[in-house]
Amino acid sequence: MNRDKGKIKTEPEYELERRTRAMEIIQEVISHKLQMQKNTAQLQKKEQKLKELQTEAWEKDRVIEEYRERQQGLESSVSKMTKEIEEFKKQKNMDDKVMEELKNRISGLEEEKRASDKILEEMRREKEEAERAGQEMAGKMSAAAREAAEVHLKRFGSMVPIAEDLTNLLKMNFADLEKFKDEFVG
Hints:
The chain contains 3 helices and 2 strands, in the order ββααα.
């Protein structure tokens, strides 16, 4: 027999109390086990969620890394393009300078051409004047030659001696010509 608060319990009461207490303990164990299963299920869900989050994080890290690589590639491309643009600008500046030099040369050549055209025009005019003067002189000389030929023809009756005389005159040197002049003129 047990004593509970001053009362003495009988064997059946004691047994009932013990069974009740055992049932309460079993119920607590079952409740605790159910809570543990529930906690285990929640833990598994949380672990699953954690794995999903880790996978998602790895995926995001991979995407971020790919993005960084692409960004570095783009930055490299931009840098390369910037250098190419700078080179094109330098080349364009050089080409502009060459074009300016060529324009200056062309302007100089055009200036020279205008001057040459003026000189050429002056030379044409001088040539035309010289041709006219030559024609006038030729006309005067041919008139003088005709007169001489006519005089010679009247004198000697033939043109051949004039040609022979001219040929002989051309063959003479200066001293002989002076002597000949003195004989004829003098």
